[in-house]
Amino acid sequence: MKKLKWLVLHIEEIISGIAIAIMMCAIFLNVIMRYVFRNPTAWADELAVICLAYVTFVGGAAAYKKNLHFGIDVLLDRLPVNIRMIIRQLTNFVFIVMFGFVTVMGYRLFASAVKVFNYSGWSYKIMDAALPLGFLSMTIYSLYFFIQSFRDRDAYIRRYETSYEEENVDEELVKASEKIFNRDETEEGGTDK
To answer: Can you tell me the distance from the alpha carbon of 165 to that of 19, in angstroms, rounded to the nearest whole number?
Structure first.
């Protein structure tokens, strides 16, 4: 049961990670086939394009889930916490509507796809499925964050008030970097004299 829960909680990362690994292997294979054997594989480019769609949309959902998308909140940071919370709640509500709309439109695109890739003959549905999958995931997370803003206010505030750098900085890496910069400054100062 624990493994199933972990799988569900990390499905976006798993899908996008597998997609990027396949994409890199397909491109590497195609480069070898093209420049070493002078016989490129056309299907490898098509596979890379399909994988890119999954990396983009499903990987975007993984980043949204972890609040890793860039945001310019210079003005927002100057407001009181309560006002920031209301603005973020409104933003999450807008995201629910917007992501839901894109999910529906993406599903229509997927359902109506009749085109096939030129060389492999694979249906575009394989690639088009990435759009509704990614945006459905973002819709679900937006809804979750919106509900969380009312039910667990402290967790919601921590999600946005703790910056990415504060959460993920490796203190040992920072100290090692400072030592290197200090040593470089000392060496540069010694050569000028």
So the answer is: 27
Are 137 and 65 in contact, with CB atoms under 8 Å apart?
A: yes
pLDDT tens, position by position, 141-182 = 999 999 999 998 888 888 877 654 445 556 666 677 777 778
Q: Per-residue pLDDT tens for 84-100?
A: 889 999 999 999 999 99
- What crossing angle do the helices spanning 130-151 and 153-161 adopt, rounded to 10°? 120
Q: Structure pTM? A: 0.79
Asked if residues 132 and 106 have their Cβ atoms less than 8 Å apart, the reply is yes
